[in-house]
Amino acid sequence: MKRTFGFCILFFSLFIIFSCVSNNNALMKEVYFGYYTIAEEYFKMEKYAKAIEFYEKCLKDNDELTLRNVKYKLAQSYLKTSKWEQAKEIYEELLQVDSENTNIKTLLAYSYMKLENFEKAEEIYLSLIDSQSLNQSSYKNLILLYIIKLDFEKAEQEITAYKDMFPLDETINTIETELKNQKKKLEDEKKKELEESSEASSSDGESSEEILESNTTPEE
Asked: Which of 159, 164, 158, 154 lies closest to 176 in space, CA to CA?
């Protein structure tokens, strides 16, 4: 309750300042800082929609470093609310300034994966592995990508390669179990489709026989 009341006072104060001193850069910096503070609090409270509202208000800040921080947190909030396209666009912007940032690349690949642009996601994960051969997260993300796109052969190959490179990492067993579960699920679905198709064919055959019998006139 106290925190909410504090938000109200801060927001009201910011509104007054914004209305009265919109042309004063120094004071506007204080306004943007206030917006950012509110956004951060909402983010900590996992109220991401409200965090987005206030992070977006900070986008008019012309300070380059501050703006990068705002965009990064805004993109995270978009991911938390399943706004994959908006998150992707911001991560692409951030990479133009910091092209070697592996964390942003990883998040961009994840955004592409959620958008089902598997080709772009795979391209980024492979580039991360190529530049950092001991990057376990990128290997595991790549394997999960193959499982999602039902490319089980590549997933199995990468799991084998991963075990050779990181024999002590048992977390790969969880991913391997997921692969087995997905393979079984797909096999069960195919089996069910075949059974339904077979039943439909059998039913059609019986109907044809019934029609034939009803149209047959007994010989006298």
From this structure: 159
